[in-house]
Amino acid sequence: MAYTVRFEYREGYMFIHMKGPESYDNAINFWKELRKEGDLKKYSRFVIVDEVMGVLSRDLVYRLSVEIARIHFGNVIAYVDPKTETYDSNAFGETVVNGQGVTARLFKTEADAVSWIEGIISKG
Predict the structure, then answer these.
(1) Tell me, what's the pLDDT at 31?
(2) pLDDT 10s digits, 41-99
(3) Please, are residues 41 and 14 in contact by the beta-carbon 8 Å criterion?
(4) 124 pLDDT higher than 90
(5) Residue 36, exposed/middle/buried by CB under 10 A (0-12, 13-18, 19+)?
(6) What is the DSSP string of 55-112?
(7) What is the chain's alpha carbon radius of gyration, rounded to the nearest angstrom?
(8) β partners of residue 18
(9) How far apart are CA 45 and CA 83, in angstroms?
(10) Can you say whether residue 79 is alpha, beta or left, with left for phi > 0 and alpha for psi between -120 and 50 degrees?
């Protein structure tokens, strides 16, 4: 079963909610779909709210993060994960992605993520 994804097109960035069961394949498909939608609508900045249920192993988080960096090279991503059980894994993924050409930052709240991305947009 794939994630359920809702896109909102805001001034300067795309806002995304994703829900569903966690799996490596679901995650890869989501990131590819996001890139396709971003290219189609001409967005390179994203706020993503993770409402996915489940936990990937550290190895899968690493592999996924390398793929995210490849797929989203040059993009800016604010990633919201309010869940305690996955926050540390996503923090590890943030480090991997940032080391490979994507500007990404992990947040616990939507408000903080939106504030950060809007700050980047206002700086040009």
Answers:
(1) 97
(2) 999 999 999 999 999 999 999 999 999 999 999 999 999 999 999 999 999 999 999 99
(3) yes
(4) no
(5) exposed
(6) ---HHHHHHHHHHHHHHTTT-EEEEE---HHHHHHHHHHHHHHHTTT-EEEEESSHHH
(7) 13
(8) 5, 50
(9) 23
(10) beta
Contact status, residue 8 vs residue 14, Cβ threshold 8 Å: yes
Share of the chain above pLDDT 70, in %: 100
Q: Which residue has the tokens 């993770």?
A: 50
* Side chain identity at residue 92, one-letter code: F
User: What confidence tens digit (pLDDT) does each residue in 14-44 have?
Assistant: 999 999 999 999 999 999 999 999 999 999 9
Q: Which tokens go with 62?
A: 């690493």
Locus of tokens 């779909």: 33
Contact predicate 70/98, CB 8 Å: no
Name the residue with tokens 């993503």: 48
